[in-house]
Amino acid sequence: ANAEIGLIGLGTMGGNLALNIADNGFQIAVFNRTPEKTDQFMEKAGPLAEKLLPNKSLEDFVASISSPRAIILMVPAGDAVDAQIAALRPLLEADDLIIDAGNANYHDTNRRAQEAGKKGPRFMGIGVSGGEEGARFGPSIMGGGDKSAWDRVGHILEAISAKYEDEPCAAFLGADGAGHLVKTVHNGIEYADMQMIAEVYGVMRDGFGMSAADVGEVFDRWNGGILQSYLIEISGKVAKTADPETGKPMLDIILDTAGQKGTGRWTAIEALMLGTPASAIEAAVAARNMSARLGEREKGEQVFGAAPQRMDKDLIGIDALEAALVAGKIICYAQGFGLILEAAKQYGWDMPLPEIARIWRNGCIIRSAMLNDMSSALSDDASRNLMLAPFFTKKLKETEVKLRQVVAQAALHGLPVPALSAALSYFDIMRTQRSTANMLQGQRDFFGAHGFERTDTDGGGYHGPWAMG
Ligand code: 6PG
């Protein structure tokens, strides 16, 4: 038994993570349910093969790892994880450690951590972001679960993670499902970030009549400024790529119905359950759901006719789109961090918010220049709404009017911008002391005697002199 760690599940992500671990000098045992996959994986491993210990049975695999063992699971989220844990349990000792590195629902991770309990084997749930390339060359790793277990394997996870100016983008973020909660919110933000980029693409394509290649140029330019991020970078590349068969821009070939595996939806569900506003993320999930209803949209266009859409470029201008994205992005992160704060409160997790922003600066899909500023802002005060951190207040003051103009002109021209609109409404509500919820309270008291508080006295339980009938 001389492997320092083991990994089960040699799909694209699992295989790449195993290669990354081997590449960092660790001896790693690997196992896959179908042994052919293990053979194929080993054939492609090249010189790294000497660091890899392939196994054809789970028993051999477990036996090849030195004790106390650490085993990473890279199997599809859901039942497959429970099945794999059940198969491993009889082979492991109490101090051995199972690390679920898939995109688990954090409620499942909470349950699995409870099940592991004091009896063991121990359990950790880690969020891993960065797609295939990240897994191979450095992902962002969001750790959660048993802190003493993290202390045992943290050096391996830090070694394989992405680096931001030499700092590892891997950290322990809290007990039980805290790591997977953060990964889920990461993906929710990812959905909103992507959706807002798609929305300004829509304004450029349908409003301004720009070609995909020209849109690509704009994204490239933005990537040199405040919006510098992986998602803007790849959006530029996607827009500029042509289909080799037809020569047409890829964007004009790709069907406009978005897939989703569920993590964005979980974020929205979680926000609703925790009673914390994540409207930009919710709008992004809803936009994917609407995109999937292609047939209905076709009928809608037949019945209502196409919206006017085309507008004079000078009405808002390209720079306004950039500013709108900046504002939208700040607001969506304010919502995402707000959600994490609320979950931490609910579960009694001690979650280091600045650390989360710090490990998102590289490796993960939402990595961007702005995350460095977010990390600083959260270090100053982690419980304050991000919009109220002086750096971001200033940015929002500079961009707010542009966001408003973009949303307004888009609405007038029938160009859907659901995530940007949601962001603007959030901003307008959160900067307004007197909201309209007094009307809601009046209605609730009228029909259900639910009571309300008064503005002129303390305490609640007041009722209005409503005339019934
Ligand atoms: C990441 C990605 C990754 C995956 C998403 C895509 O952080 O590396 O978020 O986890 O690409 O699952 O999610 P959808 O299929 O739901 O878009």
UniProtKB/TrEMBL annotation:
What does the record give as the active site?
183, 190
E.C. no: 1.1.1.44
SMART domains the UniProt entry points to: 6PGD
Q: Which InterPro entries match?
A: 6-PGluconate_DH-like_C_sf, 6PGD_dom2, 6PGDH_C, 6PGDH_Gnd/GntZ, 6PGDH_NADP-bd, 6PGdom_BS, NAD(P)-bd_dom_sf, Pgluconate_DH
- Reactions the enzyme catalyzes: 6-phospho-D-gluconate + NADP(+) = D-ribulose 5-phosphate + CO2 + NADPH
Q: Which residues form the 6-phosphogluconate dehydrogenase C-terminal domain?
A: 179-467
Q: Where does NADP(+) bind?
A: 9-14, 32-34, 75-77, 103
Pfam families tied to this protein: 6PGD, NAD_binding_2
Q: Where does substrate bind?
A: 103, 129-131, 186-187, 191, 261, 288, 444, 450
GO MF entries: NADP binding; phosphogluconate dehydrogenase (decarboxylating) activity
Instruction: Tell me a GO biological process for this protein.
Output: D-gluconate metabolic process
Tree of life domain? Bacteria
Chain's role: Catalyzes the oxidative decarboxylation of 6-phosphogluconate to ribulose 5-phosphate and CO(2), with concomitant reduction of NADP to NADPH.
Subunit info here reads: Homodimer.
Regarding protein family, the annotation reads: Belongs to the 6-phosphogluconate dehydrogenase family.
- Name of this chain's protein: 6-phosphogluconate dehydrogenase, decarboxylating
Organism of this sequence: Roseibium alexandrii (strain DSM 17067 / NCIMB 14079 / DFL-11)
